[in-house]
Design brief:
It comes from Algoriphagus aquaeductus. The chain contains 4 helices and 13 strands. It is of the alpha+beta class. The chain is elongated. The chain starts with a helix and ends in a 5-residue tail after the last helix.
């Protein structure tokens, strides 16, 4: 019995330390110097200490920030806080640090070019989500499952509904999200035509085709939308 009590006694500090672990949610893409800069901090215990904003590479403390409790209902069994470091505009790489728990966030940047190239990363993600021919997998999906039920055609009539993008990991597709994504890509090109490159062809395969990739991707969505609306009505 004494041995068990000793084990429990030694275990208590470990459990206590685990309960004090602090987690961070911060924009890993980064912030422009003039941006509003906020992050979410949460833990299963109340956070009583300030959060340090650490500047790299010398790991100096750029600021100490008091976490502000978020009073908007219960989210699981965590305590949530907001921290605001908008006043920091010096360019460089940073991370957030909670000294009591020795917990840190992922690194992020504050800089005028923080968003440089992010548009190409987003287009790469869209190509990964393509339905029909998928350039990431170099495979064609949904070759036999386009069947119509409870409509004007006989049940199990084959309908070619390939195209567009899988909405998530469940591989479903929706007109509302497909049209929304397509519209934003067209708007982005209209506003910032010089920001988009041409590194893949219309199928998403390596090699330029003389058309900005954002328009190739938008057309992939438009073709699917028109396929599902073959008549004006």
């Amino acid at each position: 019995m004494k041995q068990i009590s000793l084990y429990l006694f030694l275990l208590c500090p470990i459990l206590s330390l685990k309960a004090q672990e602090v987690f961070f949610s911060v924009n890993q893409v980064g912030f422009h110097p003039s941006d509003t800069k906020k992050a979410i901090v949460f833990s299963k215990g109340k956070i009583k200490n300030n959060i340090h904003l650490i500047h790299l590479p010398d790991s100096s403390s750029a600021d100490r920030i008091k976490p502000v409790p978020i009073e908007s209902g219960v989210w699981g069994d965590f305590f949530y806080y907001s921290i605001d470091f908008t006043q920091i505009s010096k360019e460089g790489r940073y991370f957030l640090w909670h000294s009591a728990s020795r917990s840190s966030s992922e690194k992020f940047e504050i800089g005028s070019d923080s968003y440089a190239g992010i548009q190409e990363d987003l287009l790469e993600f869209m190509r990964q989500q393509r339905c029909g021919y998928n350039p990431t997998m170099d495979m064609v999906c949904h070759q036999e499952d386009g069947r119509s039920f409870f409509g004007p055609m006989p049940d199990s009539t084959y309908v070619d509904a390939s195209g567009g993008w899988h909405d998530a990991g469940d591989q479903l597709k929706y007109l509302i999200t497909g049209s929304y994504a397509t519209g934003h890509m067209l708007m982005a090109y209209e506003l910032f035509p010089d920001r988009f490159g041409d590194i893949v062809n219309a199928l998403g395969q390596p090699g330029p085709n003389g058309i900005p990739d954002v328009l190739d991707e938008a057309k992939w969505g438009l073709d699917w939308l028109l396929k599902l609306h073959p008549a004006p009505d």
